[in-house]
Amino acid sequence: MPELPEVETIRRYLIKDIRDKTIKNIDIKVAKQFTGRKEDVIGKKIIDIQRKGKILTFKLVNSLTRELNNFLYLNIHLKLTGQLVFAKKINHKYKTAIPHANSNNLPAKTTHIIIYFTDNSVLYFNDLRKFGWMKITNKPEQPKGIDILSSDFTLKYLTDLTSSTSKPIKLLLLDQDKLAGLGNIYDNDALFLAKINPLKKSNSLSKNEQKKLFNSIKAVIETGLKFNGASDESYILPNAQSGKYQKHFQVYGREKLPCLVCKTPIKRIKHGGRSSFYCPNCQKI
DNA sequence: CGATTCCCCTGATAGC
DNA sequence: TGCTATCAGGGGAATC
Length: 285
Hints:
About 20% of the residues lie in helices and about 25% in strands. By secondary structure, the chain is α+β, with helices and mostly antiparallel strands. It has 2 domains: about 5-135, N-terminal domain of MutM-like DNA repair proteins (Alpha-Beta Barrel), CATH 3.20.190.10; about 145-280, Helicase, Ruva Protein, domain 3 (Orthogonal Bundle), CATH 1.10.8.50. Strands 2-9-5-4-3 form a 5-stranded mixed beta sheet, covered by helices on one side. Helix 1 (about 5-20) packs parallel to helix 5 and helix 2 packs across helix 5 (about 205-225). It is globular. The two termini are about 30 Å apart. The structure holds a DNA duplex.
């Protein structure tokens, strides 16, 4: 599932592929996943790709008149199974089979939106479960929370945040309007590294735990980036290659497997409608 | 305000 | 074999 490291990896690759390209046409096969009038962005040039939390934003400007004060934004959320895959031309053959496409070619059954550029290159938006979306806006669509890679994410910000509520720390960290970027994978792994139980009340963390949590959140995000994200189910890079962080999961997806530190079997519980993975020995309340 | 539940969707898996 | 029920999961909406 694309979280901050996955979306940022996509951004870093895609910027090299499509910066300064002009949109020739958009083929929308699943209407509910596209909000806005595609006519508004046809003929517009992509001058930058931004990201906050898990939302990617293409910054667009009219390529002919260069109205530099009049930008449009194409925002993208990949949710659980979204993919953005670039091709220099149609019928491009990728080196490996694309998850859920069952082929080395695109478009696939799961290709729901296709963006064509004027140089005949293509961007495919695939999404098995159809939860993802694209949306045209006049200003970037962004979560309210501080982005983890931002310099505004400080130890003080985290301590103020955790002190503000008694809800379980695991759920607080998933709230994109508080802290932007963590999903289930990196949330679970960060709490493991900090040796904090996911059910622990946020405002009961000690000073030391707050500091460990701050460092652990930054560490898991950096590690995720280093391995180009986790190709656990659907996620792939814009060149259709896999990320590698799934080989370095601490607790996520490791139910009943031995804890990497003490060998105690990892436990899986459900709360807030999500699975939490933790070591009952290393992460006591 | 917070907490809970439902919903969107589809492939995988379990049970009959 | 093949049908049906259940589940995962980000985030928005509705409800209490």
